[in-house]
Structure formats: structure tokens, C-alpha cells
């Protein structure tokens, strides 16, 4: 005598789709109609399932739930999608009309390389009513805790990290702050429950300007910093805690401008001290406990000719205009002068003029010249800076001299020549010298 339920490996041809499958409306009259109903309801999801099965096989931890239909076949109460996917991997044209041509091409490619199993693991119940409680447990949610409880986004990311995969950058930041920083009890509790809004933190950290302000960057999937641990923790702790407590919500991070505006509101003491920036980058966990030197060398470093980019890494300004900010970071981090001096020269010329234009608009500077070229606009800006006390007369001398003397490889004549003169070829050292002469002016433009 057979004792139900029992486990058995049953050949696929002996398994039949459930004509009373809750996933589809009505009750189909045949197996063909049942498959078409599942295909119409699932469409591309079946392609995704077929792809997963073709790559990994059927889950050995999840048996088909079936009941006897007759002496030779069984009705599948749970696993109708899996059974349909198996049939499609053997006959992909069954999905014609339910997938796009491109998707059909993918399904046929999967089927061409797929070796179907002879049988599948099943658990056999005597009748439908006996199996209902277990089918419902799989499909009716977590209930009061007795059903399957789906992982939150944070728990999914945690699982990926623990199984040996690289932790995502935002999870690296979150775990670093929770371990090393001081956050509120609410943030700690949300992390413990797995309800911390990690997607909001991820969205914020995708913005280069936010990362720069917080003193971090992402290289090959790892979060790195040039700052000692106590300094980089300042801004990171603030953003992690404000997201965790709900002080700021996802609506504040929807656009790049939103995210830049948020981090630009941080006070100086809530961000890393620029004077503690080190020469070498390190992963967050390996950041030093204190700066190697507390002496400010930022002014001296800006004049170094050993750097490979036009703008030194130590130089920092906050630029709220997205396009100008992007250009700033390309000159600072991406364009290597030895490889692309012409591109750097042209882009720097654009950066200076856009910065001057923005200063004029923000400060309502009157350009007194008829010809609003870069030289005339910059001259008006310098006059405004001197009158307003933004820069001293001594600070302005190098820029004014550059404006007057067309023989200098500086602003504006030769920068214009970089764009318009085919015989003007800048070297990396030329461009670094231009920057060193104008760095203080750029600081003033964006102060």
C-alpha cells in the first residue's frame, strides 16, 4: 500500500499542467490550451525562467507538488511555470505569438544547447485538498510569519556579499559607517531588521560630485579614500544616518542636481578636512587612523609638475552646475596630459569660459565691452572681484598680466589659439603651468 505523501522522480512526459491553475483565468479544456494560458499570462517571465533552468538546472530544494491523475500520469499543482519552461526548451515554437522575434531567438538558442532531464523530483499527494495547505504556503506570502518571507533589498545585497561575491559600493559604505561611526538607534534598528533604504544610499553614491564631497571614490568596485578614517567618516556618517532615520528621503535624490544640492548643504565640519588628504588612496577599511601630516601643503601641491592631470587631486571646489562640474572632474581625474594634451587644452578653455559666465550671472556683473569675448568677460569679472574684495590686487596681478600679454601661454589668447590655431600644440607642462597660474582665480570663481 502506498503511503502519501511520498517523494518520487517522475518522467516529464507523465506530468500534466493543472487545468485549475490559479494563475490563469477560467479552466482550459486541454493541455494545449493550458500551456497557452500560462504563456499568455507569463510571457517574457517564462523566457527568464527557461534561461535560469538552462544555466542551473531545476532546483533540487524545490520539488514539484503533484497528485495522481490516472495510472500513468500526474497533475502538477505547484510548478506549472517550471513544467511549461521545460516544454518550451524542447519545443520553443510553442511560444510563437507570446514573445517578440528577438525573444524567440533567445529561446531557440537556449533550446539548441539544452539537455532536458529524463525526470524531475516530485512530492506526490493523494488528493488536491491534502496538498492545498502546502501550495498556499508557497504562494500566499509571509502571512503571520508562517509563509515565505521575501528578502529585502538590503538582505539580498548582504547575501551576495556573504556568498563570496563583491559587496556593492553602497553596502561597503553602509557597513563601514555602522562599524566605525556613530549613528542613531533608528538607523541601527532599520539595518538590523533589513529595512534600511539601501537603494536611496546607492542612488546618492552614483553621483561623482557627491563622492568627491564625501572624500571617496569607486575604483574596480571598491570604495577608496585619500582621507584618514575619522575624516571620511564625517560626511559618510551624516548621509547614512539621515537616510536611515528618514530625515532625507528618496525624493531628495531623484536627479543629479538634487543630489549635488543635498551634499553642498553640508557644513565644512561635516566633511573631510582638505588638509588631511593623503597622497595615496586606500579602501575604506584600510584608511589610516590619522593624517600622516597635519601641515597644509595644498598650495604647494598645486604647483607640482609631477602630476599627470591638469587639475591637482588636492584642489577642491564645489560646482553646483552639473555640466561644468563634469568638465571639472574630467580635467581632474580622467584626462591624462601625456595622452591627450590637445583635448585637455580645449576642455580647459571651455571650463574657464563657462565658469566666468556663471560668475557673471550669479553676481550680476556688467560686461562693459561691446565684444563679449572671453578676455573682456574675464576682465570685467576681475574688476568685480577686486571691488568686492574677493581677491586682492596682488592676487589679480598674474591673471591681469596673462590677459594683457599675448606672448604668454595663458588666458586668453593662447587658450583661444588651442582651439583655433592648428599650429598651436600644447605640452603637458604648458597646461600645468597655465593651471598653476589660474588656480587661485578658479577658486575665487567658485567660492
Task: List the SSEs and their pairings.
Elements: E1 6-11, E2 15-17, H1 31-42, H2 44-56, E3 64-68, E4 74-78, H3 80-90, H4 101-113, E5 119-124, H5 128-139, H6 153-162, H7 169-180, H8 185-193, H9 198-205, H10 208-214, E6 216-219, E7 222-225, H11 229-245, H12 256-264, E8 282-283, H13 298-301, H14 322-334, H15 341-363, H16 374-388, H17 393-404, H18 413-420, H19 428-445
Parallel strand pairs: 2-4, 3-5
Antiparallel strand pairs: 1-5, 3-4, 6-7, 7-8
Helix pairs in contact: 2-3, 2-4, 7-9, 7-11, 8-11, 10-12, 14-15, 15-16, 15-18, 15-19, 16-17, 17-19
Highlighted features:
single chain; 447 residues; alpha/beta; five-stranded mixed β-sheet; three-stranded antiparallel β-sheet; 19 helices; 8 strands; 51% helix; elongated
